[in-house]
Model the fold of this input.
Amino acid sequence: MASASAGMASSPCGNSNFDSGLEIKTRSVEQTLIPLVSQITTLINHKDKPKKSERTLAAIHRVGQAVSVAVGRFVAVGEAIATENQELKDEMGQACFEARRAGDAIAQLTDVGSAVPSQSDGRVTVFSDRTGMVKAARLLLSSVTKVLVLADRIVIKQIITSRNKVLVTLDHLERVSTFQEFVQIFSQFGNEMVEFAHLTGDRQNDLKDEKKKARMAAARAVLEKCTMMLLTASKTCLRHPDCESARINKDAVFHRMRCALEQVIEIVTEARSCGENKILTASIYNGIKDFKSSVECLRENLYSLAPQSVAGQLEALVERTEDFTDSAYTSHEQRQAILGLCQLARQDTQQLVHAWVEAQSVHAKEPTEDMEVSILKTCQNVNDLRRELHKVAVGRASDLLKVHGEQLPLRALKAAGAEGNLEAVAEYSRTLTEQKEQLVETCRLLCHVSGTEPLEITCIHAEETFHVIGPQIISAAQTLALHPSSKIAKENLEVFCEAWESQLCDMALLLREINDVFEGRRGKFASWIHVCKNKDKVSEQTSMAKLGLELRLLSSDVDTEVEKWEEQEHDIVRQSQSLASMAYNMYLFTRGEGLLKTTLDLFHQAEVLSEEGLQLCSSLRTFSAQLVDEEKSVVMTEMEKLVALCQQLQMGAKTPVQGKTATFQKVDSSIQTTRSILTVVLSLLPFCNKLNKKVTLSEQDMTLSDWHSD
Done:
C-alpha cells in the first residue's frame, strides 16, 4: 500500500490532477495541500504495519486528530465563502460536506479507542479497515482541492470586477470635455488602477506557469507605463481639441490600455485570443531542442518515429532561419554562414535517415555504428547553427543599443517640434521609423534564440512596445510642431520619449538575460551592487549612477528651497522635507550605502514615499483653495502630475517580481519615478512660497483693516 500513498502524495503537487479532474494552477493552492498530503501519506505508510507500539499508536492518533481538526477549520472557511458568494453555494457546500465526512472517517480510523490488543505480544492492532483509509484519504484530497479551486474562483472574480471598474472609468476619461472633470475622474482612475495592480500582482506571483507569469508581467508593465502617457495625452487633447495628431496620440494610449486589460483577463480566465497565437509561434531555439530530442531518442527506439518525420522537422527548422537570412540588416558573411550550416545539417540528416532505414531493414534492435556517428554529427551541426544565430541576433542588438543610446532622432524631434518646424519633424520621423523597424526585427530575432518561454514573451513585449511607441512619439512631435508654445504638448512628447528610452534600457537587460541562458548562467538576483556593476550601459542618461546622482542633487535642491520658507511648520514644507530625505536614502542605496540594504527595503521606501507624496497633494489642494483662479490653475496642474506619479510609484512598489531582470527593472523604474516626483516638487516650492507670502500679507492687511474699523 506504500505505492498507493506515494501515488496520492504526488497527485496534487506532481500531476496536479485529482479524481475530480481539477487542475492546480496556483502556488497558494499547492502549498496549502502539501502538509495535508504529508500527513495522509504518514497514516497510509503506517497502515502497512498493523501492530504498533503505544508510542507509535499515540503519534498516529495525533496525526489523525490533527487532520480532522485542520479539515474542520478549513471547511468553516469554505462555508463562509459559500455564504458570501451565492453562485458557488451549492458546489462549495457539497465539497465542504465531503471534506468534513472524509476528515471524520480518518479521525475514527485512527482513534485509539478502536484499537485491539494482540494476544501474542500485547501490541495494539489498528487500521483493520485498510480499504476504508485509502478511500477516506482519496475523498479528502479530492474534496479539499475542490474547495481550494472554488475559492480561487473568487480571486478571479475580484480581478474581473476590478478590471470592469477600471474600464468604466477609462470610458469616462476618454469622453471628458473639461479640465475640472478630467482631474476629478483621473484621481478616481488612479485609485482603481492601484487596486487592480495589487490584485494582479498577487495573482502573477501565485501563478505556477512561468509562461503565463511572463505574459501577466508584460501586460501589467504596459498598464503601469501607460498611466502617465494617458495623463499627458488626454491633457494635450483637452488643451488642443481640434488637433488631429493630438487625438491620434490619445486614442493610441487608450487602445493600448484596453488591450493590456483584456490580456490580463485572458490569462486569469484562461481564455484564448488571437494574441495568444503569436506567443505560441515556435522559435528556432525550441525547434532545435525538439529536433535534437527526436534524433537522440533513436538510441532508445529505432521504430518510434518515421525517418521522414525527422527530415521534415529539420526543414521546418531551416525555414524559420529565413527571418535571419531574408533580413536586409544581416551581413553577407553572416547570411552565408547560416546557409552553410543549414546545408550541412541537411546532409548529415540525410545520412542519418539512410543509415536508419538500413538498420530498420535488418530489424536491428539498437543503432548501428553508422547511425551513432550520424546522430552525433547531426546534433553537433544544429548546435553550431544555434550558436551562429545567437551570435547574429545578440550582435545586432548590441550594435543597435550603442547607436540608439545616443537618442539623436529623439533630441532632433524635440528641437524641431519646439521650433514649430513641421518639415524637420517629418524628416526625423522617417529616421525614427527606420530605427523602430530595426528594433522590431531585432526583437523578433532575439525571440528565436531567447532560450526560455518567459524570455520569448518578454521579446514579443519589447517588439510590440517599439512598434506602438514609435508612431506615438511622431504624433506627439507633430502636435508640438503645430503648437510650439504649448507646455503640455512639450511635456507629452517628453513622456513618450522617456518610454522609448526606458524600453531600450529594458532591452539591454533582456539581452544580458538571454546571454545568461545561452551560457548556462541562470543565477538569482544576488546583490544590487553586483548587478549595477555588470549592467550594460545603454547611454549615460539611463545609467544608474547618473540616476542616483540626479536624485541626490534634486533632494539637495528641495532642501535648499524649503529653507527659504519663513513658515517652516507649513505642511507643504514638512512633507517636501520628508520626500527629499527618503529620496536621499534611495540615492545612497544606488551606492551600496545607507539604511536601505536590500531591494525589498528600497521598494518599501518607495511605497512610503508615494504615500507621503499623496499627502503633499492633499496639502496643495487645501492651499490652492486660498488662491485666485490663474494661480490656482498652475498649482492644480502640477498637483495632477504629482498625483499620477505617486500612484505610478505606488503601483510599481506593490508589484511582486521574481528574477534578476524583473527586479532590476523595478528598481530602475522606482528611482526614475522618484526623480520625476522630486522634479515636480522642486518646481512647486518656490511658486508656492511666493504665493504663501502673498496670502499671508493679504491676511495681515485684512486684520489691520478690521482693527482700524473697530
About this structure: Residues 660-709 form the longest helix (50 residues). The beta strands are 51-52, 116-117, 124-125. The longest strand covers residues 51-52.
